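Fill in residues.
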């Protein structure tokens, strides 16, 4: 801006200075006889001057507008640079939970940093309102009963959720769990669950839900004397494989540890436990205390969605099982990442038991022959089950 003002002034000065050398303006202001050629000359000089003035002010305007554009760009750049660090306009408790913290002992070669960033799902910061709501509580007090909201936030992509500095709501009384192994097939005491988040307020209600109309996730899963009692016990030659038949495909005792993705109420892990195989079950609490139920049976549950990277090291698990949950509701690209992740955690020779995989006809084409694949048509949709082995090379 300053440079242009200087330029403008120089131009003005030039016209003022150069004018009189050819044309004495002072003399022209005297009442002398008008010489038409002189007048014309003056006229054209004036016009020239006016034209130059208007061009200069055009330049002024253009420069002013590009100047404000640059300022706006710089401000935007500063804002976007600052965002991940300072958390912008987020409440303090959110910043404490998600912002980086300086290491008290300084630079750590193990981390390659002198800062520690608390891990939270990258999408947490995309939903600032939900994040602020989730982190609104009395520090040191009781957490809000917001399980439904929190799980929805997690499923939307804020996974893992940030940690909080509050206690979950406590129960009035707590009854000791049923001893193992009876716990595997005993409906737990109602006191093991805080029921606020669920439509049902007791296990009896959840067991009876099986006979009620309406849709619920894993509707018959809490009835341990119903369908659960027979799941994976028999190979029906079509979609159902029996656990014993699957274990028999390997030398005895070599399938020892594994994972059941979306394992409902944990019956797969219970059946495996009876065969000395330790299975970790991931499950959501979709209008039912699935995680509490699995834990009460004496099995390990993890409240984790299928979107998250599996928290296991590569080449470690003997078996991964998944029924229903891995199917065409998952975006293709994410499903591909999930299948690679399962491959990663399985040891060489490990088994991937894809149980009742749901898909539409054309999607089946992506699977090659040479695997045990059974198909059962249901309307225009297909289910299939497969037992896949990770190559040993
Ligand atoms: C000087 O310019 C004015 C308008 O700009 C015009 O009306 C007038 O005729 C011109 N005079 C001469 C002598 O060219
Ligand atoms: C499980 O392990 C126990 C003790 O090691 C053993 O007695 C039992 O026979 C095993 N059960 C099966 C089904 O392999």
């Amino acid at each position: 801006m300053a440079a242009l003002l200087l330029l403008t002034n120089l131009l003005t000065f030039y016209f003022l200075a150069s004018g009189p050398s050819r044309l004495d303006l002072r003399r022209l202001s005297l009442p002398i006889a008008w010489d038409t050629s002189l007048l014309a000359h003056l006229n054209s000089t004036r016009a020239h001057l006016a034209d130059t003035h208007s061009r200069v002010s055009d330049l002024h305007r253009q420069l002013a507008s590009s100047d404000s554009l640059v300022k706006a760009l710089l401000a935007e750049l500063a804002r976007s640079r600052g965002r991940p660090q300072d958390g912008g306009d987020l409440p303090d408790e959110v910043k404490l939970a998600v912002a980086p913290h300086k290491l008290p002992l300084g630079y750590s070669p193990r981390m390659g940093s002198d800062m520690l960033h608390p891990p939270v799902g990258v999408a947490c910061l995309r939903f600032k309102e939900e994040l602020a709501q989730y982190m609104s509580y009395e520090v040191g007090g009781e957490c809000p009963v917001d399980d439904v909201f929190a799980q929805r936030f997690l499923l939307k992509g804020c996974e893992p959720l940030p940690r909080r500095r509050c206690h979950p709501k406590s129960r009035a009384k707590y009854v000791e769990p049923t001893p193992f192994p009876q716990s595997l097939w005993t409906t737990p005491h109602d006191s093991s669950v805080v029921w606020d988040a669920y439509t049902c307020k007791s296990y009896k209600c959840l067991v009876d839900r099986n006979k009620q109309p309406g849709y619920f996730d894993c509707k018959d899963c809490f009835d341990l004397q119903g369908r659960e009692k027979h799941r994976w016990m028999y190979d029906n030659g079509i979609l159902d494989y029996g656990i014993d038949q699957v274990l028999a495909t390997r030398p005895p005792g070599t399938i020892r540890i594994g994972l059941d993705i979306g394992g409902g109420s944990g019956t797969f892990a219970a059946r495996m436990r009876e065969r000395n195989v330790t299975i970790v079950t991931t499950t959501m609490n979709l209008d039912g205390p699935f995680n509490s139920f699995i834990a009460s049976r004496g099995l390990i549950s993890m409240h984790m969605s299928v979107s998250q990277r599996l928290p296991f090291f590569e080449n470690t698990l003997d078996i991964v099982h998944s029924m229903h949950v891995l199917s065409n509701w998952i975006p293709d690209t994410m499903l591909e990442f999930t299948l690679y992740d399962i491959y990663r955690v399985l040891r060489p020779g490990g088994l991937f038991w894809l149980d009742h995989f749901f898909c539409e006809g054309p999607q089946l084409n992506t699977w090659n022959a040479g695997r045990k694949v059974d198909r059962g048509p249901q309307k225009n949709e297909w289910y299939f089950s497969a037992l896949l082995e990770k190559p040993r090379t």
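Residues 275-276 surround 2-acetamido-2-deoxy-beta-D-glucopyranose (ligand 2) (CB under 6 Å).
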